[in-house]
Structure formats: C-alpha cells, structure tokens
Design a protein that fits this description.
mainly beta; 337 residues; 34% strand; 3 helices
C-alpha cells in the first residue's frame, strides 16, 4: 500500500489535494493527515484510499461554500457543489478527523455539505462532521430532481450507483435534513446533535410547518430518499440530542425526501427535544407518507430510562416489533460483511 503524509511542515505534501493527486487510480493508498486546520475543498475519486487523521480535535478539514453563492457565470452554486469533502471511487475509509462546512445557517448561505459520501463502500470512523443544513450527503441522488438544475454537481449526469456506508463512533451536527440521501447506511454508536436555530434572538419567531399551529422547528435529522426494498438509514445504539436551548418537541427524527424512504432508530437514547410525532411528512408535519418505512425500537432517555409515550406519533410511522427489530439487525449485519 502506498503511504503518504500530509503535514503543515515536514510531510510529503503540505496540502491534502496534492497527496490525492499523487495517488495512481489503481493503487491502494493511505494518506496520513497531521495536526492542524486545512482549509481545502477536497475531491477524491480514487479506487481504494484511506484518510487517517490524528483525531477529531487535532486534524480539521474545513471550507465555506454554500448553495446560495453566485458563480462566475451568474448561476448559484447549488447544494451538490457546496461540499467541503467529496469521497468517491470504489472504496474509501475516513478516520480520526473533523470535516466541517463553515458557511453558516442555511437561511443565509443555503445548503452547505460538509461530507459528500459517494464511494461504493464507505467507512467513517471517529469522524466529527459539522454543518447546518445538509451536513452529510449519503449518495446516490434520487433518480429525478424536483427543481431544474437542482442536482448540478459531480454526479448529475452519471448513473445512480447504490452505495454501502458505515458510520462508527462518529459525531454529526446540523439542523435541516442534515443526514440525507439514497444510500443504505448504518450508523453505530454515533452522537447526533441538532443545532438550536433560535439561539440568535434577532432571528425571529416560529416556523410555519403547513399543517399545525406555528411552532419552533429546530430541524429534521434525516431526509432519506431510498426505495422501499432498500435497507435505508439504520441508527443503532446512537445518542440523539438537541443543542442546549432547543425547545422540547422541536426536532424531528426525519422526513422523507422521496416517497419510499426508509429510516429506523434502534436502541437509541434521545432527549426531550424530539417531537411527539417523531417523524414529519415532507412539506407538512401531518402529511400522510404511506409508502415509507419509518420507526423506532427500544428508545430510551439519555439517562437510560424508558422513553415518553409514543401514542402521538404520526399514523404512518411503523410499529417495530421485536421480530421486525431482529430482522433489521440481521439485514444490517449482513450488509456490513
């Protein structure tokens, strides 16, 4: 395996992109990234590559592109060109670092992806991902876009290739749809936190969700877009919280970006910021989403106590029995082999 070292001083390369460009496509490679903050926009489409940092508090990759940015031709950048780091190819592993999009809140800069995960096999371990709207994109894109040029970016004209993704002991921060996409993705022992979008007192009041009385909605953790026979997003033994100051009931576990989306939370711990409806419809909390598969099993409070009454959940949210839970775990384990 080819091994390269990126350091501010004394490495093989001083920038990550120099090291990526030095790797022949067919070569297996490991790129060690040293301590420091690397302000770079990363694009890797190599066959088999490992990115190894010194730890989330020591190795930091950041950039600040946002969807609302105006390009040289007068068009907007759009969501899928806003990434800080794009990881494609056949196989990628990213470990022990922070990847951040520092563009800021979505209402000011638009969607701003920190990690665009598009390799056929993706492993992220001990990675902190920081952003606001659309922090982590788990490719592929849906088959069709809803807005003209909405998918413009690295994969707009390519076939939709199913990806296999695993996130282990990661920390993911954001607010609106901040884990989204069409991948089959398993999240094991991750810490996931929704930002408090109302900590700036000058921002204003509640959000209108289209179907209920005005309320504060801090965000939606997931926005899956897979198909009904897919595994979808599976969260196992994760901790789900709101940032300090998030109102109780102001965060939804997810909403379906497309009609057949699947997302489940298994044996996770959550605080009281999670909305009583659990999941929202797309465009309105109470919108019916009968083709989806959304649900949770074994949810507990942060202190390990039994969780609140789930009788208020939206009617299309599934009751996950122990039999279904065992099957979801079996499929997830089989998928990760």
């Amino acid at each position: 395996m080819l091994e390269l070292h990126v350091k501010k001083d004394g490495g093989d390369y001083s920038t990550i992109m120099e090291a990526i460009n030095a790797v022949p496509y067919e070569e297996q490679a490991m790129i060690h990234i040293g301590e420091g903050t690397f302000k770079e926009k990363i694009f890797s489409d190599k066959r088999d590559i490992v990115f190894m940092g010194e730890g989330p508090d020591k190795t930091i990759i950041e950039y600040d592109d946002g969807a609302f940015d105006e390009m040289e031709d007068g068009t907007k950048r759009g969501t899928f060109r806003s990434y800080t780091a794009f990881f494609g190819g056949k196989k990628v592993a990213v470990k022990d670092m922070t990847i951040s999009n520092t563009a800021g809140p979505g209402e000011k800069r638009g969607q701003a992806i920190a990690v665009y995960a598009d390799a056929e096999h993706c492993l992220f371990e001990n990675v902190k991902m920081l952003g606001y709207q659309d922090t982590l994109f788990c490719a592929p894109l849906p088959f069709t876009e809803r807005q003209k040029n909405g998918f413009f970016g690295p994969r707009v004209y390519t076939p939709r290739i199913k990806t296999r993704q695993h996130y282990v002991n990661c920390q993911i921060f954001g607010d609106v749809d901040f884990i989204f996409g069409g991948a089959d993705a398993v999240f094991d022992n991750c810490f996931i936190q929704c930002n408090n979008r109302y900590k700036d007192e000058t921002k204003g009041g509640a959000v209108k969700d289209g179907s209920t009385a005005d309320r504060h909605i801090n965000g939606y953790i997931t926005a899956a877009s897979g198909l009904k026979d897919d595994l979808g997003f599976v969260f196992r033994n994760c901790t789900i919280t709101g940032e300090k100051g998030c109102e109780p009931g102001s965060v939804f576990l997810g909403r379906p970006w497309r009609e057949q989306a699947r997302t489940v939370f298994l044996n996770c711990k959550m605080d009281d910021c999670i909305a009583k409806e659990r999941f929202s419809g797309w465009g309105a909390v109470q919108k019916d989403e009968p083709e989806t598969f959304y649900g949770e099993f074994g949810t507990k409070g942060l202190d390990g106590s039994s969780f609140a009454d789930l009788s208020y959940k939206n009617p299309w949210v599934k009751e996950i029995t122990e039999e279904i839970y065992n099957e979801l775990n079996r499929r997830s384990d089989e998928y990760l082999r």
